[in-house]
Design a protein that fits this description.
Elements lengths: L18 H11 L4 E6 L12 E6 L13
Parallel strand pairs: 1-2
Length: about 70
Amino acid sequence: MSTGCEGKSSWPELVGVEGTVAEARIERENPLVNAIIVPEGSMVTTDYRCDRVWVWINKAGIVKRVPIIG
């Protein structure tokens, strides 16, 4: 599936990893995006942006969803 965005767009290998580690890796692998750590249950804007990746973490700070551009 093409997102129309440049660079890597999905990081399934980061589920189960510490959020700050995932954030750094995402931004290293695609310097066009800003990875933003979001605690599960938080509200976020629903607009689609090629320069943003939500990194959803649980209370322990572990990534719980596949980070994707959007």
